[in-house]
Amino acid sequence: MNDPVSSKMRRSESPFRRVVQIAFAIGAILTAVQFHRFVVSLSQTAPEVLALRPAAVDAWLPISSFMSLVYLVRTGIANTVHPAGLVLFTLILLLAFTLRRGFCSWVCPVGTLSEYAHLAGRYLFKRNARMPKPLDIALRSIKYLLLSLFVVLICRMTAEDLRAFIHGPYNRVCDVKMHAMFAQPSVTTLTVIAVLGILSLAFKNFWCRYLCPYGALLGLASIPSPTAVRRDPARCTGCGACTAACPNSIRVHSSNTVRSPECTACYGCVSACPQAGALRMGLPRSKKALTLSLYGLVTLAAFVFVPQAFRAFGYWDTDTPNDLYRRLVTDLSAIGHPRTSGRLSGPE
């Protein structure tokens, strides 16, 4: 039996967010293809055939970028090994602080894949499974525990430890190691991907809701954001359409202002509201709504113009020379994970 509220939500939802999601997903795919060409060319001997490394691949290195941000705050020195990563990580944090966690529902290709996975699961099985509330609460804590682990380990490192990691061999080729993990996946990697894929078909946003420490960080950063979904109690009829439409199970209809770190600014609740003016995304003292289209355009503009500006100022591409890349990739398996002291194993 079809849920009338869900049907109304699907009919009223604007396709604009989908268009933006797909645009960023295509950009991520093109970046991955170009990076693959770069990695393959590293094994070739003639320097002139080395493919260009797309700096945007640094966006897939959030832990390295977080360490670079901590190092920048402590020393005032900006990382030149993966500068694009630092730029994008800082931009994403600032957007979360000002415009909530829209990165997850508008930009992140993993979030897009997770969203389409549960929609596919609903199409195949007619509905998505519901996690029992006590288990849902317990599982949601996992991403915060993972975030806490990373934060504690990184913040305990001295400035010298951070510098050693950032400029060490492991960090210089961590992008290539990431490529190897997916280009030549182990049985463990394939098993984890398969399990996550099945769970993502069954449950809404399984990875994002329960396991993603990046999303946890952005959720916490978004709590003080002046931008939020706001309900007008005088106009609200209490129909619950907004709550039913929320992919993150937030009780929107009982909140005057949605402050939940789970809110990803997907506008699902606003689009589903049948009462004009009862629900809006906006600032606290403004009656004007931040429309879905405007939110999407601001997000899109930020990810287009900020990288272009830093590229123009010369802070975007890595300072790792191609010959060093080649030498390190030759000994890739010998370059191990950093030890807890911050010193690195593997060739210098």
Concise overview:
60% of the residues lie in helices and 2% in strands. With 348 residues, it is mainly alpha-helical. The chain has a two-stranded antiparallel sheet with strand order 1-2.
Model description:
The chain has one domain. It has a two-stranded antiparallel ribbon. The termini are far apart. The protein is globular and about 70 Å long. The chain has helices at 4-12, 16-42, 62-75, 83-99, 102-107, 109-125, 133-156, 159-167, 169-172, 174-183, 187-202, 206-211, 213-222, 241-245, 268-272, 292-312, 322-330; strands at residues 228-231, 279-282. It has 348 residues and is an all-alpha fold.
Radius of gyration: 22 Å
Distance between the termini: 63 Å
Instruction: Give the strand tally.
Output: 2
Q: Low-confidence stretches at least 5 residues in length (pLDDT < 50)?
A: 1-11, 340-348
Average pLDDT figure: 91
Percent in helix: 55-70%
Strand content of the residues, in percent? under 5%
What is the element layout, followed by pairings?
Blueprint: H1 4-12, H2 16-42, H3 62-75, H4 83-99, H5 102-107, H6 109-125, H7 133-156, H8 159-167, H9 169-172, H10 174-183, H11 187-202, H12 206-211, H13 213-222, E1 228-231, H14 241-245, H15 268-272, E2 279-282, H16 292-312, H17 322-330
Antiparallel strand pairs: 1-2
